[in-house]
Amino acid sequence: MSRKPLIAGNWKMNNTIGEAVVLAQEISNEFEPDWAETVDVAVCPPFVDLKPVKTVFEFDRTKIAVGAQNVYWEPSGAYTGEISVAMLKEIGCGYCIVGHSERRTLFGETNEDVNLKVKALLGEERDAIDPIICVGESLAVRDEGSYLEFVEAEVNAALAGVSEDEAAHVVIAYEPIWAIGTGRTATPEQAQEVCAHIRATVSALYGDDIAEGVRILYGGSMNEGNADLLMAQPDIDGGLIGGASLAAGSFIGVVKAAL
Ligand code: PGA
Asked: Dihedral of the CA atoms 96, 98, 100, 102 (nearest 10)?
């Protein structure tokens, strides 16, 4: 089955509203309309930038989605500082990153939190916000050799209680922590090994049909120079791009590699 690649830019905590509008406009200017037939593209800016960035793309009729970097699972209430699924929905978010390793390590997010967020996004009221679930091992786990089991456990935990219908909307991003922001990319073979294992894990949960449709991204120092070879791997369906998504030229370079 052929899967449509997804290139998602994770801006992390970068770009004020003014800066975000400029970058979104530059990306929009370089994006050719017919590319959208071959590749799905999303940018995931900080919460405050979501609406302004969405407005740029809407005004230009550019088929680039916006995604959030996080969400809270409760529908509303006394949760100071949090953002609900309904709030993201009203802005028109198509995606939401969940369980990024920076959230897990810096903000104490657990596998259980990730699961609650995934279920909140996929719940009946969700209206198509697809979670981009991030998984990936530390250098210590890789060196010790148990990285496949580690990633498998993260996938199983994230998808606990998720139905077959819901699972079809899930995107999984394999992001080895040792490759994030370090300039040290996983080799295509290393990335493929884990992405194939993720697909096998999804297949064990939901069967081959669902597993063959789920998009699995690679993330970790991916850029226009290495994107080609990574995406040539059979189980890598795109990328979650950090540093290289912060300039229009390098982000568009990665998008072109997926065409
Ligand atoms: P990087 O970040 O491309 O800067 O390594 C990727 C990510 O953290 O999503």
From this structure: 100
The CA 239 to ligand 1 mean position distance, Å, reads: 9
- What is the rounded distance in angstroms from the CA atom of residue 218 to the CA atom of residue 7? 10
Q: Which amino acid is at 15?
A: N
Which residue among 102, 109, 137, 175 is the active-site one?
Answer: 175
Whole-number Å distance between alpha carbons of 139 and 146: 11
Helix (H) / strand (E) element for 47: namely helix 47-60
Catalytic site residue 175? yes
Using an 8 Å Cβ cutoff, are 52 and 64 in contact? no
**pTM score, whole prediction:** 0.97
Question: Sign of torsion, CA 115 180 65 25?
Answer: positive
* Alpha carbon distance 195, 174 (integer Å): 7
SS (H, E, C) 155-190: HHHHCCCCCHHHHCCCEEEECCHHHCCCCCCCCHHH
pLDDT digits (tens, 9 = 90+) for 30-71: 999 999 999 999 999 999 999 999 999 999 999 999 999 999
The helix/strand/coil state of 84 is coil
Could you please report the per-residue DSSP string of 93-158? --EEEES-HHHHHHH---HHHHHHHHHHHHSTT--S-EEEEEE---HHHHHHT-HHHHHHHHHHHH
